[in-house]
Design goal:
Radius of gyration: 17 Å
Distance between the termini: 26 Å
CATH class of the largest domain: Alpha Beta
CATH topology of the largest domain: Carbamate kinase
CATH architecture of the largest domain: 3-Layer(aba) Sandwich
Length: 190
């Protein structure tokens, strides 16, 4: 599970307000660490074992990201929360999600967001926007549909990792998506 930090701080927003971009991005990464720790606490409060792994070294509060250790946690049925993105400025949590999904051999990348899928136009600006149930990576890239950042989308396309975009605010949607149901929009190679 990759969790963003936008509710606390977004690197791009800090940069837009005059902050040096690299510093702003690192602050955004630290915000993701805080959110992952909060999610770990919530999951463990429900009896679900979870581990936070960070791309930045913060050994006092979480483990370093080590692929083999992440695989072992997953084999033991633990939820692994990936914090601090890729550990590099200029990369988004979308890129981290695609990278970790590819590294760990995921079947599908689930992008839980505040929109119920991918549209041909911004549904907030255009009430006539049409939602796709399914589309290809090529169509998403060609039409600049804003599914994810281009790096993340291209990585998923190159490694044939399908992306499912759905609204996490709808009760039951996360469980349905994790259970394999197609809610929202599915982006695939063909």
């Amino acid at each position: 599970m990759v969790i963003g930090g936008g509710n606390i701080f977004r690197g791009l927003q800090g940069s837009a307000q005059g902050m040096e971009r690299t510093t702003a991005d690192y602050m955004g990464m630290l915000a993701t660490v805080m959110n992952c720790l909060a999610m770990q606490d919530a999951l463990e409060g429900m009896g679900i074992h979870a581990r936070v792994q960070s791309a930045l070294r913060i050994n006092e509060v979480c483990e370093d990201y080590i692929r083999r250790r992440a695989v072992r946690h997953l084999e033991k049925g633990r939820v692994v929360l990936f914090a601090a993105g890729t550990g590099n400025p200029f990369f988004t949590t979308d890129t981290c999600a695609s990278l970790r999904g590819i590294e760990l051999g995921a079947d599908r990348l689930l992008k839980a967001t505040k929109v119920d899928g991918i549209y041909d136009a911004d549904p907030k600006k255009n009430p006539e926007a049409v939602r796709y149930d399914r589309l290809t990576f090529a169509t998403a890239i060609e039409n600049q549909l804003g599914v994810m950042d281009l790096t993340a989308l291209t990585m998923c396309m190159e490694h044939e990792l399908p992306i499912q975009v759905f609204d996490y605010q709808v009760p039951g949607n996360i469980a349905r998506a994790v259970g394999g149901e197609t809610v929202g929009t599915l982006v695939t190679a063909s």
